[in-house]
Amino acid sequence: MLSHVRCRPVVAVAALFLTGACSSSTTPATVGSAGPQPSAVLTPVRPASGDAEPSAVPPRPLPTAPQPAPALPQPVVIPADGYAPEPVVELGSIEIPAIGLKHRMFQGVTLHNIDKGPSHWAGSALPGEMGNTVFAGHRATNSQPFRHIDALVPGDRVIFTVGSTRSTYRVTGHLVVRPADSWIAEQTSAYTGTLYACHPVGSMAERYVIRLELVPS
């Protein structure tokens, strides 16, 4: 549910080898003989000239267990109350040079944070990490940080700074969805990002969504 991206703050898984069994038995003496007979001598049979020596068969490698898939981030559920209790957490900053944006960014899914600036959907991937890092922002209220995100085109850069880590993403496309389409925050093993805001400007009828991919450093 994307209801808290508002345009006004009122709504918001053996082998056994049989080797030692070859006992070297001696031939018994013949009855009536003058003495013990010499033991039979076992001469090893060698391959005829030109025959190849039998080669040893290398053991088969044991099958290895498949590696478990990496655990994906789990975005939190957005509460129905746009102003449900939630701490205000400043996360870092966001820059979008193409639209002249440089703004503090926060972490939270209620208007307590979104009203202050672009806000990270808690539980989604953090910028630069595996998964889909998701941010919501206003277009017509408060500081209107996402007012012009509909002007972004593929290739435009979005830069997140969290602590000393700077992660650059590029725009790959956009789409318009319904407020209930929380699937935009789904997580995969790819390094992607999502920005979204109310659409059209001044209306809460739809959400304008920008898709991003991480630029390799």
| CATH level 1 name of the domain at 89-214 | Mainly Beta
Care to count the β-strands?
8
> Major beta sheet, specifics?
8 strands, mixed, barrel
- Report helical residue fraction: under 10%
Write the CATH fold name of the domain at 89-214: Sortase, Chain: A
Instruction: Give the low-pLDDT segments.
Output: 7-34
Q: How does the overall form come out from the CA principal axes?
A: elongated
Distance between the termini: 33 Å
Sheet-strand content, in percent, reads 25-35%
Mean pLDDT, to the nearest integer, reads 83
Secondary-structure content class: mainly beta
- Total of helices: 1
Q: What integer value in Å does the Rg equal? A: 36 Å
Report the CATH superfamily of the domain at 89-214.
Sortase
How are the strands of the biggest sheet laid out side by side? 1-2-3-4-7-8-6-5
Q: What would you say the CATH architecture of the domain at 89-214 is?
A: Beta Barrel
The H-and-E topology, N to C, reads as EEHEEEEEE
